[in-house]
Amino acid sequence: MTGKTGRGERADATRELILVTAERLFAEHGVFAVSNRQVSEAAGQGNNAAVGYHFGTKTDLVRAIVRKHALPVEQLRLRMVIEAGDSSDVRDWVACLVRPITDHLAELGSPTWYARFAAQAMTDPGLRAVVVTDTLDSTSLHRIIQGLDECLPYLSSEVQAERGDMARQLMVHMCAERERALALGAATPRSSWRDAGTGLIDAIVGLWLAPVTRP
């Protein structure tokens, strides 16, 4: 029994090492610029097929990275949604969108790679569906969308969809830009992920409340 337990623990440690290594390489070089073989080598695996053995295809590896982060973000978001209750304040619902992501990145310490990885995956036609399925299709997000709809009943469904896309682009790419600057040791407009989240919330609230020009 001890032998089996030890092998299981080693396998789990190997999987985690591969995930961390792949996330870093994908963030720094691009998902399709890095092969599974390169990930295995960088993770110090003697078997160059280690990624395929533990995860399968590159898409499966990407999905595993997304799911690794999606769970803690969802837990943070669910707590915020419960606290928001039946709020009629747009800012409360926007905060439910933004804070879980920026707080999660803060909790990861430094350096981080997930924001840059996610930005690349979201702009890739073949990988976007993986990210959308595992991060955007959640109970908490459905409640947030409902909360925003209730706060903004005067916006048409087309405008709501458009502004939802805009808000997502801001969150994904502004987090990636901050993470990139931190990795380079460059100056950032905000001193912490918490403050960066506040700036995002300010901007996205303004976006949702902006006037609509009728054709």
| End-to-end C-alpha gap | 71 Å
Mean residue pLDDT: 91
Low-confidence stretches: none
As a percent range, the share of helical residues equals over 70%
Query: What best-fitting shape do the alpha-carbon axes yield?
Result: elongated
Write the H/E string, N to C.
HHHHHHHHHH
* Portion in strands: under 5%
Q: Largest sheet, if any?
A: none
Notes on the structure:
Helices cover 75% and strands 0% of the residues. It is mainly α and 215 residues long. The model has no long low-confidence stretch (mean pLDDT 91). It has helices at residues 2-29, 36-42, 50-54, 58-84, 90-107, 114-123, 128-136, 139-151, 157-184, 193-209.
